[in-house]
């Protein structure tokens, strides 16, 4: 199951304001001290787009890093990034995902419950979970609820397993 798929939604890019050209010219008073040699021929609109893409890139990478850290050994692969080429010709991450193992543990509702709780933590680890992150967390909560029901059934039948939360 993939968590953190920011590229497939436009919510992240919509939250970063774009300055209008008139505002861009007012910033810095015409001085260009922050330009690198590759940016010298770019206009203010392109420079603002580069700054916006850099900010998105940092946010996306931090988002996926949070999934990786929280997911631990549940992570199957990733992070995978989706890139956009900026006006400077460089690639910026504008989305990404991490693939995690979101399956239950067959025949062991106690282990399934613990795993589901870890999946929820991994999915909700970033500061701003994406809609896909929320879907994964919801599915894991459903898996945890089913595991709790199975444990309750086992206890009612006098089974050995009794998970204490």
Report what the structure shows.
By secondary structure, this protein is α+β, with helices and mostly antiparallel strands. It has one domain. Helix content is 48%, strand content 14%. Strand 2 (75-85) and strand 3 (91-100) form a beta hairpin. Helix 3 (44-71) runs antiparallel to helix 4 and helix 4 (109-123) packs antiparallel against helix 5. It is rod-shaped and about 75 Å long.
Give the overall average pLDDT: 82
Helix content: 40-55%
Number of strands: 3
| Assembly state of the chains shown | single chain
Structure summarized in a few sentences:
With 165 residues, the chain is α+β, with helices and mostly antiparallel strands. The chain is built from five helices and three strands.
Keywords:
single chain; 165 residues; alpha+beta; three-stranded antiparallel sheet; rod-shaped
